[in-house]
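Subject: mismatched residue count in predicted assembly?

I count 559 residues in my input, but I want to confirm that the predicted structure covers every chain. Input:
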Amino acid sequence: MTINQIQDRIVEDFNQFDDWMDKYALLIELGNGMEPIDDQYKVPQNIIEGCQSRVWLHADMADGVIHFKGESDAILVKGIVALLLEVFSGRTPDEILQTELYFVDKIGLKEHLSPTRSNGLLAMIKQIKLYALAFKARNS
Amino acid sequence: MLTFAVLKLQFMLSNEDILRLRTDFPILEEKIYGKPLIYFDNGATTQKPVQVLSKIEYAYKHLNANIHRGVHYLSQKATEAHEEARSTVADFLGAAQREEVIFTRGTTEAINLVAFSYGEAFCTEGDEIVVSVLEHHSNIVPWQMLCERKGLVLRVIPMNERGELDLEAYASLLNGRTRLVSVAQVSNVLGTVNPVGEMIRMAHDKGIKVLIDGAQAVPHIPVDVQQLDADFYVFSAHKIYGPTGIGILYGKQELLNAMPPCQGGGEMIDKVSFEKTTYNVLPFKFEAGTPDYIGSTALAEALRYVSAIGLDAIAGYEQALTEYATEQLMQIGRMRIIGTAREKSAVLSFLVGDIHPYDLGMLLDKMGIAVRTGHHCAQPLIDSLHIPGTVRASFSFYNTRDEVDLFIKALQRIVPMLS
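Triage response: the counts match. Full output below for your records.
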C-alpha cells in the first residue's frame, strides 16, 4: 500500500463513527495496542518535549527504508503517534519527504496538531521529516 | 431591618445571587462543541462582566485622548479617569498613598520592574533573594536574571507534603545577606494560601523587604497591603475580571523613591537634555510611555464590581464551592488531590491514577469543560512533586454546584475510557 492509501484507510476507519467519543475510544485503543518503545530508546536525545506531554521518537535505517519507534506519556498523543508511525515507518526517505499529511485533519483530530496545544506532535512530524532528510543525505 | 438585609448580602451569596451575577457575564452563554461552556480556568484568566466591557467601549467613545500633557478638554477627562483609577486601586489595596500605585502590563512586568530597579538600588554580589518552591515562573525567572546580572544567590523555601511552606526552613534562610523575599500569597497550582502576614513579620524582624505576588489572591480574598505591611504587592487586572494587558505594582513610597526607573521615555521624565535628564516623581517615574488609560479605567470598574459584591462574600461562596467540588471529586476512584493545605483558595489540582493530565483535559474540553492541564508555569513545583503535571479546576463566584455536578459526571464518563 502507498502512504496515501494508508492515510485513506485511517480516514475510513475513523469516519465510520459520528460521535467524538467513539473516535477517541479508537484512538485510545490504538495507543494502548502500541508496542511499547524499548527502554534503550527512551533516552534524552529521543525526547521531543512538548509543554503538555512528551513524545519519544527513534529512527533506524535498514534496506533503504526508515523504521520509526515512538511513544508518548499521554494516551491520546500515543494514539496519534501510532497512526503517524503506521503512515511513515518502513518508508524510503523520498516517500516520507514527498508525503502531504492529511489524515489527521480529515479524522477531526487536527486540534492535537495545533502549535498552541504544544503536545510534541507537531515537533515529532518535523523530526520525522528531518530524519528522512538526514538519512537521504547520508546515503547519497 | 434594611441594615440587616444589606449585611446579610455582604456576607452570603445565595444561589439566586449567583444566577443573577452570572447574567453579567455574556461569555457564560457560549456553547462549546454545542454544549454549554463550563469555565473552570479562572486561575488563568477570569471572564469579564458587562460593566467592564461597557466601560471599555465608553472610554474609547467618550474619553479617548492621550493623557497628562494635553491642554484640551478630552485629554483632561482621560487624565482624570486614569488618575481616579489609580485612587480606586489604592483604596482597593488599602495603600497609604495613591502615588504608591504603579500601572504595569501585569504581574510579570511588575515583578521584573522590582527585580531590575530594586536590584540596581539595593543588591550587590553575594546577596541573596528568597523565593518559594511553589512560585509561578514569573516569580522565579526575573530573580534568576537578577542573580545572573549581579552575582546574587537564589534561595528556595521548601514545602511539606500538603503543599504548605516550611516556615522553620524559611526562618533559617533569612540572614544578613538576604535582600528580598518574594512569595505568592496564593499558589496557582495548589491553591495554598501562604501565611504572608507572618512571613513578612519574620522578614521585617531581620530588616528584610518582602514582595507579595497577589495574582491568585486578589480575586478571592480581601487584601490590605498596610495591614500585611507588604513592601511590594503585585497583581494582574485580567485575573480579577478586568482587561488584559494591565496590572499593578504597589510599593512603599520610600522604597520606590530610592529605586531607579527601569524604562526611559515619555511621561517618566522631569527635564530632558542631551547632557542630563532628570526623572519625574512617583508614580510617573516608573510609567514610561503612553499609559494604558483605557485599561486602567476598566480595571477600576472591575474593582468596583468586585467590591460591590464584597470579597468576603465571594471568599465564602468560593470556599463552599471548592469544598463541595473536593468532596465530589473524592467519589471518583484513584483520585489524588494535589495540594491539601489547610488554608486553601478556589483551586483544585488533581490526577486520576496514572492518567496523563493532557488526556483528561482534552476529553473534558470535548464536553465543553475548560480546565487547565500541565505544569501551570510552575515547573520546579511540579518536578518536586514527581508528577507529569496536573489537571486544574479553578473557580470563580460565577461557577455553580450544578456545573460541578456536570464536571463530575463528565469525569465519570471519561476516566473509564482512559483507564
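Chain B touches chain A at residues 33, 355-359, 361-363, 366, 373-375, 388-389, 417-418 (CB under 8 Å). Marking this ticket as 'not a bug'.
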